[in-house]
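Q&A log
Question type: sequence-to-structure
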Amino acid sequence: MNEEHKGPRRSGGPRKAQEIFDATLDLLAEKGYEGLTIEGVAQRSGVNKTTIYRWWPSKGALLGAALIGARQLELTPPDTGTLAGDLEALLGTIATLLTERPASDIAVSVLGAATHNPELAAHVKDFFADRIAREQSVFDRAVARGEITADTDAMLLVDLLAGAAWVRAVLRQLPLEKSFVARTVNTVLNGARAAG
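Response status: OK
Response body:
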């Protein structure tokens, strides 16, 4: 009974990669990084642990692949027609990620563990590089519309927005009220000074 060979082949991983990624993130949300094990992922996904080790030599490598490849964290860059609208959609996605389970448990576990684990930190860095690459079209369209200049630091804009959500939701344990997204995007794009 070799279940990892069922289904269509996905390049860059075993045939049941999505099941493995889903099991990885589910276990992370339930047990945290310390409680995440390759054996647990194998059992939950129905894949032999040797298959998992063949593709990912450690749980850090497996988690890094799951962060980028799992359906639970998929990102489709928004296209609302304005930079402000697109940034509000992106920040709304981040706010949901930080406030709704199981995504919030995954996010907090990963970033908490990454501060103590250099291997995992490298994989988290790859995850964020993948995200900013996916989000680049938002900024390319904004440049084409004349909303920002070509030398605008897109990563800094995303960091400012995401950082505001992280500090408020995770560190301060405050709710992200309905107006948070629009107010934050407005402040980042237009500043805090009074007009005049």
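Response note: Residues 1-11 have pLDDT under 50 and may be disordered.
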